[in-house]
Amino acid sequence: MQHVTTIAELRAVLGRERHQARRIALVPTMGALHEGHLTLVDDARLRADVVVMSLFVNPLQFRPGEDFEKYPRHLEADRARAEARGVDVLFAPTVEEMYRAGGEIRIVAGETASRWEGAARPGHFEGVLTVVAKLFNIVQPDVACFGQKDIQQVTLVRHLIAQLDFPIELAVVPTVREADGLALSSRNVYLNAADRHAALALSRALQAAVTRWEAGERTAATLRDVALAVLAGTSGVVTDYVAVVDGMRMLPVDRAEPGSIIAVAARVGSTRLIDNVLLGRRGA
User: Among residues of the chain, what percentage have pLDDT more than 90?
Assistant: First the structure.
């Protein structure tokens, strides 16, 4: 595996690969790698000849008072995991390399970014889309692999690709879970034993709603109430939102149909977690 830290180095490496007509995949991450990230690598390996993983904790997507400073950073461990899983090129730039002094250009997200995570974390998606657009420009991948757990981010990246005419295939990989249902997240390391147990309420709430939907319930408000009841009944969990939305713009729906999304965000102890399910997709 090649480990590069500058844009110039990365472009030189990938230029040689393109000269050989090799297909390139990008797996963007903020590090603290877990099996969810590594499953993205597996998917990328099926779709391309060269897998590039970016490892960059992006300051633009953190608001003041969020966990940018304490976000887990384990470069050497991440490097070993990436190499063992088959990453060909690891791109781990500094903040100064990615955001040159005096830079002021940002991607402004639209209405789809104003709801749910966007409402809870103003400016978050502007930071996400800006760094993703930069990575797309730097790497120029044929395919980019993202995880379903960050479903609103995935939706916005789909719009970014379409509306800015990036010639990139978007691959969305199903959420990876622990055996008990907890969605893998780099922020799970913040959970103590009691919080870890309480955090299972998110996946239980989603599964309760899915069970009702599979039994024939289609009223979105009812499915939302089913999920909310599970969260409200769990000590240590403070619900941010439960949303039943369409799969294109994250707009609330009245009826939940195949392809609708149920998304949830909640604070467990001091840690904010998100999760979702895509109705009609087993295991997704």
Answer: 93
Q: Of 140, 173, 206, at which residue does a domain stop?
A: 173
**C-alpha closest to that of 139 among 18, 262, 271:** 18
Which whole-number Å values give the CA distances from 125 to 102, 114, 133, 218, in the listed order?
21, 9, 12, 30
CATH of the domain at 86: 3.40.50.620
Sheet strands side by side (includes 271-278): 237-245, 261-268, 271-278
What's the CATH code of the domain at 263? Answer: 3.30.1300.10
Count CB neighbours of 254 within 10 A: 9
How far CA 147 is from CA of 36, 100, 275, in Å, comes to 8, 28, 11
Q: Which of 143, 173, 203 is the last residue of a domain?
A: 173
What are the residue numbers of the active site? 37
DSSP 182: P
Tell me: do 203 and 155 sit in the same domain: no
Say if residue 195's pLDDT is above 50. yes
> Mean per-residue pLDDT for 10-35?
97
Residue span of the structural domain in which 263 resides: 186-275
Is residue 181 in a domain? no
Residue 283 has a CB neighbour count (10 Å cut-off) of 8
Which pLDDT does position 284 carry in this prediction?
39
Which of 206 and 66 is assigned the larger pLDDT? 206
Would the pLDDT of 178 be above 50? yes
Residue given tokens 């955090």 in the structure block = 199
Least Cα distance to 148 among 275, 41, 3 occurs for 275
